Amino acid sequence: MTVSRHRTARWLPRLLAAALVALITPAAAPAQQPPPGGAPSAPAQPAPTQPPPASAGPADPQLIEDLVAANRILAEQGVLDGWGHVSVRHNRDKNRYLLARARAPELVSAEDIIEFDLDSNPVDAKGRALYAERFIHGEIYRARPDVIAVVHTHAPALIPFGISKVPLQPVYHRSAFISGGIPVYEIRQAGGMTDMLIRNQALGKALAATLGDRPASLMRGHGAAVVGPSLPRVVSRSIFLALNATLQAQAMALGGPLTYLDPEEARLIEEREGFGLARAWEAWKQKAMSKR
Amino acid sequence: MTVSRHRTARWLPRLLAAALVALITPAAAPAQQPPPGGAPSAPAQPAPTQPPPASAGPADPQLIEDLVAANRILAEQGVLDGWGHVSVRHNRDKNRYLLARARAPELVSAEDIIEFDLDSNPVDAKGRALYAERFIHGEIYRARPDVIAVVHTHAPALIPFGISKVPLQPVYHRSAFISGGIPVYEIRQAGGMTDMLIRNQALGKALAATLGDRPASLMRGHGAAVVGPSLPRVVSRSIFLALNATLQAQAMALGGPLTYLDPEEARLIEEREGFGLARAWEAWKQKAMSKR
Amino acid sequence: MTVSRHRTARWLPRLLAAALVALITPAAAPAQQPPPGGAPSAPAQPAPTQPPPASAGPADPQLIEDLVAANRILAEQGVLDGWGHVSVRHNRDKNRYLLARARAPELVSAEDIIEFDLDSNPVDAKGRALYAERFIHGEIYRARPDVIAVVHTHAPALIPFGISKVPLQPVYHRSAFISGGIPVYEIRQAGGMTDMLIRNQALGKALAATLGDRPASLMRGHGAAVVGPSLPRVVSRSIFLALNATLQAQAMALGGPLTYLDPEEARLIEEREGFGLARAWEAWKQKAMSKR
Amino acid sequence: MTVSRHRTARWLPRLLAAALVALITPAAAPAQQPPPGGAPSAPAQPAPTQPPPASAGPADPQLIEDLVAANRILAEQGVLDGWGHVSVRHNRDKNRYLLARARAPELVSAEDIIEFDLDSNPVDAKGRALYAERFIHGEIYRARPDVIAVVHTHAPALIPFGISKVPLQPVYHRSAFISGGIPVYEIRQAGGMTDMLIRNQALGKALAATLGDRPASLMRGHGAAVVGPSLPRVVSRSIFLALNATLQAQAMALGGPLTYLDPEEARLIEEREGFGLARAWEAWKQKAMSKR
Question: Which of A116, A117, A123 is nearest to A52 (CA)?
Answer without folding.
Answer: A123
